[in-house]
Design a protein that fits this description.
This protein has 8 helices and 3 strands. By secondary structure, the chain is mainly alpha-helical. The longest helix is centred in the middle third of the chain and has 22 residues, at 79-100.
Length: 151
């Protein structure tokens, strides 16, 4: 269902949630309340709505990443939605990584960008991966997950 004012409301809500003023608080929370940060970043409301509309259940599993990769990219006709959906896709990818890979945790860069840090110390810029997926379809979210989980 296409309801323009809801799309604007969702984008405005995300902008308020991701504002730079909140970056220091999010960085502190990533260390003091990692479960709370995981819950916050797993909301991915725009992505979950798009997926549900397409009949895809997002259950925070690697299999759900494969299902997302199969969606028709109808969002690419709206540049604003591509950016926000890509951010949500990256946060969802990060959620799956944190919930399924031992030692993976959210970390927040000084500018406020959330990344996933693996036990090895490697950092995955999941937001960038999600934005590339939303914009051009590559890399696939499931491919990023597979590469991270193998190494």
């Amino acid at each position: 269902m296409n309801v323009p004012f809801l799309d604007k409301w969702r984008l405005d809500k995300w902008r308020r949630r991701a504002s730079p003023d909140r970056a220091p608080a999010l960085a502190v929370a990533a260390h003091t309340d990692p479960a709370g940060v995981t819950d916050l970043l797993s909301e991915c409301e725009l992505l979950r709505t798009q997926a549900a509309d397409a009949g895809v259940e997002l259950d925070d599993s690697p299999r759900s990443l494969e299902a997302l990769d199969q969606l028709q990219p109808v969002w690419r006709t709206d540049p604003d939605v591509v950016v926000w959906l890509g951010t949500d896709a990256g946060l969802y990818l990060g959620t799956v990584l944190v919930r399924t890979i031992s030692g993976a945790v959210w970390q927040v860069w000084p500018g406020g960008r959330p990344v996933v840090r693996l036990a090895s110390g490697r950092e995955i810029d999941v937001v960038r991966a999600g934005q590339e997926w939303a914009d051009v379809g590559a890399p696939e979210l499931s491919q990023v997950y597979a590469e991270v989980s193998e190494g």
